[in-house]
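INTERNAL AUDIT FORM
Audit reference: QA-55
Scope: verify that the stored structure record matches its stored sequence.
Auditor: D.O.
Record contents follow.
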Amino acid sequence: MWHLPAFAVAGMPQSNISLPAFLISIVALSVLMTWIFNGTRGSVLMACLFRWTMNTCLGLGQMPLGVFTAATLVIAATVVVLVTGPTHLSRSPEQDSPENGSIKQRLNASLS
């Protein structure tokens, strides 16, 4: 939703992007970022670094988000789902159990 108005404004980077490819890539990117977030025990920093890397690589190559980029993200997300399964794509109550500590408890412990 955040980027949708930019598709209607001439001169914005999104105005040159295929909307269907963009929407498909958002779903694939969400799968990858969820896998990274959960795989790093809730590290927002790692998810942000991944997103920044994606933006930087697309910006450096001046490559618009097209079918090739969307297909690459879909393939990567499919591989992640097939290899890791659903266990790393969702959080379970066991992950936030008192033995493991909640994300807030782990953050407080790492800061002190």
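Auditor finding: record pair retrieved intact. The chain has a mean pLDDT of 76.
Action required: none
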